[in-house]
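2.7 Reproducibility. Because tokenized structures are sensitive to small changes in the input, we list the exact sequence used for Glyoxal reductase, including any N-terminal residues retained from the expression construct. No trimming or masking was applied before prediction.
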Amino acid sequence: MITNIHSTTTLHNGIHMPMMGLGVFQVEEGRELIEAVKSAVKHGYRSIDTAAVYANESGVGQGIREALEEGGLSREELFVTSKVWNADLGYEETLSAFYASLERLGLEYLDLYLIHWPVAGKYKDAWRALEKLYREGRVRAIGVSNFQIHHLEDLLADAEVKPMINQVEFHPYLTQKDLLRYTREQGIQLEAWAPLMQGGLLDQPVLKEIAGSHGKTVPQVILRWDLQHGVITIPKSTKEHRIAENASVFDFELSLEDMARIDALNQDLRVGPDPDNFDF
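Resulting structure tokens (single pass, no recycling of outputs):
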């Protein structure tokens, strides 16, 4: 039951993952990043999502340490995600990349480690490395990002451990219904990146109308739509008031009609690369 910012979902290996977290894509190292992480934790967020290619793992780690100290929290109360970049896919390369991320973050383990993109011919070796890290307890859950159905089918044909997460671009203009249905059938949790379409939906008329009827903002409506679809969401912001606003989505509920109207906005429109045609 999604009732507050601390609400979690249970991954297929029994690990509890927060339904909402903070994304830090394109947030540069520095005080702004550190304060964003601290603000998120202060406002109840317990999940932070970064990646090697974001080049900000050190700042995220610093923000986590300061947030834990100031908030009197333990490391175990946070859920930290990072991802291996395309250039480091491969068995040994992925193992090295993982430990480099861990060092930059200043952590002893990760809660979730993902393959960032499905680079043809490379992600299976990388997955074997993630399975090793998982078995050794260096990471509590493993998964993938930007995998389409055919990528998942290919991976599952040889995988010994099924991915717990598939993090993909997901918003009202890209609802990925078939992928959402497939991951549910497989017991793989879908997670949304760019849930607000990087600000591209703020003036969408249907969303503005629904937001007005609930006394909420368009971002709040979109994030609520994610959650009611059972999709984990990680909106990005560095502004404390936005971080707080994004977390204020647990005091209203979208009707079935609202959900259907938002679903109908789908245009199969991406703001990020197409996983099948990404120029690696």
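The chain is about 40% helix and 15% strand.
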